[in-house]
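User: Let's play a game. I give you a shape written as C-alpha cells, and you guess the letters that built it. Ready? Here's round one.
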C-alpha cells in the first residue's frame, strides 16, 4: 500500500468537459518535466481511447480506483492554466445550479479554447542535422538568419518561397525548433486621465464612493441607483478610471452587448481608446486575440455579455453589472445560471468590488441593500437639469382606437404635435412581427406551432408564419389548412410591423424605423440604426424591448406605449415588477436633453398599481408594495425557489415521471412543493413538459434537497429532469 501522500504524487484529479459527477483520476506521465503538474494545468488525457482536453483539478484524488486501472496523463497543453478563482467559480456555479462541474468547465473552455493557444513560430536549431541542405532548405535557414526573430510557419514559407509542408518537414528533421511567438496585443491602454466630463456634486460623491471601493481592493457590492439619464454611466466610468490607475483590469457586463454602440462611443470619449468587447458573435480570430490579451493583462477593460464572466483576468479589480435588473442576464439553456449573481460570486473570489447599476433595481438587489449586504448610492435627478418625462395613462375604454387599429386618438394627436415641433416619437410594443395570432374567419382555426404550445406569429414582410419558441417557419397559407376556405385567414392583434403600417397610414411623410431583434440583427445594424436616429434621419421609431436599452436620443420627446398591459398577464411572480422596470426604461428614453419628454401608456386598467407607479414616477412605493406582497409567503427574495421541469417526447412518460416526482417531494419545516402541473408551454420543441416548484424559506439551502429529491426517481430513457434554481421564467 502506498501512503496517501505518495499516492497523490502519482495520481491527479482531472476535470473533463463532460457531464460526469466530478473529476477522474489520472496517473502522472512518466517523463520528469511533467511532474510539476498542478491544479489548473490544461492537459490531454485519454478518454475512451481518444485524446481529450481536461484540467487538473483541486482536492484529493479519489482513491477508490486501483492505480492499475488508471491511465496516464498524455501531456500538458502549453496554455494559461485555469487560475484558482476561476476553478472555484466553476465549482461554485456547478454546486449552485446542480449542473455537472464538467459541463460548467465546458462552458468556460468554450470561452477560452486552450487548444487554440498560443501561436508558435520557428527558430533555427543550434546544431543542424546531418541531412542534405537543399536550395529550399537553405532559403529557409537564410530567412531565419536575416530575421533573427522567430517567424510563424506561414510567414516563413512565404518569405523563403517554399511550401508550408517543407517548413514542417524541416522541423521534423530537426532543422527548426518551435518557440512561442510574442503576442502583439491590439488593445491600447485606456488613459484614466483623459479629460472626462465635469461631474455634478451628486455624481462626484457617488464616484468617490466607488473609487474608494476600488482602492480598498476587497470584495464589496454597491448598487448604483439613479433615475434614467442621471449619469450612472459617467459615474462608474470614474470607478473604472480608478481601477486603471491601480493597474488592474475591469469587466463591465451589459445585458445586450449588440446594442452597445453608444456605450462604446462614450467609453472611447472618456478614455481615448476602445475597450475589449466580448460576445458570442465575435469572430474566432478576435475571440482568440481578446482572450489572450485578457490573460496577459493587455486588455485592461472588457465590456461583454454573460460569457465574459469566464475570461481569464489575472488581476480583476472591478466588475460592473449594468442594468442589473435585466432578465437577459439569466442563461436559460445549458447551464442555467444568472450572470449577475455569478458576477458577484466572481468578485468575491477575486476580492474585488462589484457595482450593480440600474434605474429600476430588482427586488432581489433592493432586499440585499435593505439587509445591509449591499451598499447603495443614489443619483436622484437627471443630468444638467433635464427633467424626468411626464407620464400619463390613456384609458383605452374611454379612447378606443379605430376598428382594427391600435393607436388611440390621444396618442395619435400627441405624435402629430411632436412631429410638428420637429421632434422624434417612439412607439413601443414588445412584440415582433405583424400579428401574434392568425385565425380563420370561416372555421375559427388558429395557426399553431406543430412542435410547441404556441401560436405562429405572422411576419408579413417576410411572408411567413413563425414560432417564436422553436423557430418553426412556414409560408403564409393561401387557404385555411383546416376548412380550406380561401382568403379567410386574418391577423389578430398587433406586432411592431402592424403598428408601423398604421403609423405609415397616419403619418405618410414621417420617416419610420422598426427596431426589433429581427429587423436590427447584430451590432452593426444596431449602431447604424442608433446613428440615423441621433442624426435626425428618423421621425418615428417603432420598437420592441431593444429600444428600451440605455439609448440616448436627445431629440426624442414622445414615447407611446402601445400595450402597457402586455406583460401583466400570466402567472409570473415578477410580472408586475418586470413591467414597471421595462416601461420605466422605455419611458426614460424621452426628453433626455433640453426639450421635455412625455410618455403615454395605452392601457385598459389605468388603476393598476403598475400604471399608478409609472404615472406618479414613484417606483419605491411600488417596490415596497411588491415586497409586502411577497414577504408573507416566502416568495423571492424573501424565500428561495427552484423549478423542476420534467420533459419527454411521449406525453404519458412526462406525466408519469412528474407524478413520481410529486410523490417523492421533500417535506419539512420551511419548505413546500407546488405541482406537478403541465407547464404553460406544455409542449416545447416536441417535448411534453410538466413543472414542479420547490419553495423554501431563505435560510434553507435548496441544492441538497433537490439533489436528494431527484435521486429518488428513475429517469427513463427519452425523459429529462431539468433544474432551474432561482427561476425567472415560469413557462
Ligand atoms: P444613465 O446611465 O444614468 O442613464 P448617462 O450616464 O447615460 O445616464 O447620462 C445621460 C447623458 O448625460 C449622457 O449623454 C451623458 O454623457 C450625459 N452626462 C451625464 N453626466 C454628465 C456630466 N457630468 N457632464 C456632461 N455630460 C453628462
Ligand atoms: Zn414551436
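Assistant: Ready! My guess for every position:
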Amino acid at each position: 500500500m502506498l501512503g496517501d501522500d505518495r499516492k497523490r504524487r502519482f495520481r491527479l484529479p482531472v476535470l473533463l468537459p463532460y457531464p460526469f459527477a466530478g473529476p477522474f483520476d489520472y496517473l502522472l506521465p512518466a517523463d520528469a518535466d511533467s511532474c510539476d503538474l498542478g491544479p489548473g494545468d490544461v492537459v490531454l488525457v485519454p478518454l475512451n481511447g481518444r485524446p481529450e482536453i481536461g484540467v487538473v483539478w483541486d482536492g484529493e484524488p479519489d482513491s477508490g480506483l486501483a492505480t492499475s486501472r488508471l491511465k496516464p496523463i498524455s501531456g500538458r497543453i502549453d496554455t494559461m492554466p485555469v487560475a484558482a478563482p476561476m476553478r472555484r467559480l466553476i465549482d461554485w456555479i456547478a454546486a449552485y445550479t446542480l449542473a455537472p462541474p464538467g459541463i460548467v468547465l465546458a462552458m468556460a473552455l468554450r470561452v477560452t479554447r486552450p487548444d487554440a493557444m498560443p501561436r508558435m513560430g520557428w527558430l533555427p536549431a543550434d546544431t543542424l542535422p546531418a541531412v542534405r541542405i537543399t536550395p529550399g532548405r537553405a532559403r529557409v535557414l537564410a530567412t531565419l538568419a536575416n530575421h533573427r526573430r522567430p517567424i510563424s510557419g506561414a510567414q516563413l514559407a512565404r518569405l523563403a518561397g517554399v511550401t508550408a509542408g517543407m517548413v514542417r518537414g524541416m522541423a521534423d528533421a530537426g532543422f527548426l525548433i518551435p518557440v512561442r511567438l510574442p503576442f502583439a496585443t491590439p488593445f491600447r491602454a485606456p488613459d484614466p486621465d483623459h479629460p472626462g466630463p465635469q461631474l455634478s456634486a451628486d455624481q462626484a460623491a457617488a464616484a468617490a464612493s466607488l473609487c474608494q471601493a476600488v482602492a480598498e481592493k476587497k470584495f464589496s457590492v454597491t448598487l448604483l441607483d439613479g433615475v434614467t439619464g442621471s449619469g450612472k454611466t459617467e459615474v462608474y466610468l470614474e470607478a473604472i478610471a480608478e481601477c486603471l490607475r491601480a493597474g488592474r483590469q475591469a469587466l463591465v457586463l451589459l445585458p445586450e452587448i449588440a446594442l452597445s454602440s453608444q456605450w462604446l462611443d462614450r467609453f472611447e470619449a472618456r478614455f481615448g481608446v476602445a475597450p475589449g468587447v466580448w460576445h458570442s458573435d465575435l469572430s474566432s480570430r478576435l475571440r482568440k486575440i481578446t482572450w489572450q490579451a485578457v490573460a496577459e493583462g493587455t486588455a485592461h477593460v472588457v465590456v461583454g455579455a454573460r460569457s465574459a464572466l469566464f475570461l481569464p483576468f489575472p488581476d480583476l479589480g472591478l466588475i460592473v453589472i449594468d442594468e442589473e435588473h435585466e432578465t437577459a442576464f439569466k442563461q436559460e439553456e445549458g447551464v442555467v445560471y444568472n450572470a449577475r449573481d455569478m458576477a458577484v460570486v466572481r468578485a468575491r473570489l477575486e476580492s474585488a468590488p462589484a457595482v450593480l447599476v440600474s434605474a429600476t433595481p430588482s427586488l432581489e438587489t433592493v432586499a440585499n441593500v435593505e439587509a445591509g449586504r449591499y451598499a447603495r448610492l443614489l443619483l436622484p435627478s437627471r443630468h444638467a437639469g433635464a427633467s424626468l418625462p411626464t407620464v400619463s395613462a390613456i384609458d383605452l375604454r374611454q379612447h378606443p382606437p379605430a376598428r382594427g387599429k391600435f393607436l388611440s386618438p390621444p396618442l395619435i394627436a400627441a405624435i402629430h404635435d411632436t412631429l410638428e415641433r420637429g421632434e422624434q416619437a417612439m412607439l413601443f410594443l414588445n412584440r415582433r412581427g405583424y400579428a401574434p395570432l392568425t385565425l380563420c374567419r370561416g372555421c375559427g382555426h388558429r395557426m399553431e406551432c406543430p412542435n410547441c404550445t404556441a401560436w405562429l406569429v405572422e411576419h408579413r414582410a417576410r411572408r411567413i408564419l413563425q414560432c417564436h419558441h422553436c423557430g418553426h417557419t412556414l409560408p403564409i397559407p393561401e387557404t385555411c389548412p383546416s376548412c380550406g376556405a380561401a382568403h379567410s385567414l386574418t391577423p389578430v392583434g398587433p406586432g411592431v410591423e402592424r403598428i408601423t403600417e398604421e403609423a405609415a397610414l397616419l403619418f405618410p411623410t414621417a420617416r419610420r424605423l422598426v427596431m426589433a431583434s429581427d429587423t436590427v440583427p447584430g451590432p452593426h445594424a444596431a449602431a447604424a440604426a442608433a446613428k440615423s436616429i441621433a442624426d435626425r434621419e428618423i421621425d418615428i421609431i417603432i420598437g420592441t424591448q431593444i429600444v428600451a436599452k440605455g439609448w440616448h436620443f436627445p431629440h426624442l420627446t414622445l414615447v407611446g406605449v402601445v400595450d402597457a398591459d402586455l406583460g401583466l398577464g400570466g402567472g409570473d411572480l415578477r410580472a408586475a415588477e418586470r413591467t414597471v422596470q421595462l416601461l420605466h426604461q422605455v419611458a426614460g428614453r424621452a426628453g433626455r436633453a433640453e426639450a421635455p419628454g412625455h410618455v403615454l401608456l395605452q392601457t385598459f386598467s389605468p388603476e393598476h398599481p403598475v400604471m399608478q407607479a409609472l404615472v406618479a414616477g414613484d417606483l419605491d412605493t411600488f417596490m415596497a408594495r411588491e415586497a409586502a406582497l411577497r414577504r408573507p409567503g416566502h416568495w423571492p427574495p424573501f424565500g428561495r425557489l427552484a423549478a423542476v421541469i420534467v420533459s419527454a417526447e411521449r406525453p404519458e412518460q412526462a406525466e408519469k415521471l412528474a407524478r413520481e416526482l410529486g410523490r417523492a417531494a421533500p417535506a419539512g419545516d420551511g419548505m413546500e412543493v407546488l405541482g406537478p402541473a403541465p407547464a404553460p408551454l406544455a409542449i416545447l420543441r416536441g417535448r411534453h413538459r410538466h413543472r414542479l416548484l420547490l419553495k423554501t424559506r431563505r435560510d434553507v439551502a435548496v441544492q441538497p434537497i433537490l439533489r436528494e429529491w431527484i435521486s429518488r426517481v428513475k429517469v427513463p430513457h427519452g425523459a429529462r429532469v431539468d433544474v432551474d434554481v432561482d427561476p425567472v421564467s415560469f413557462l
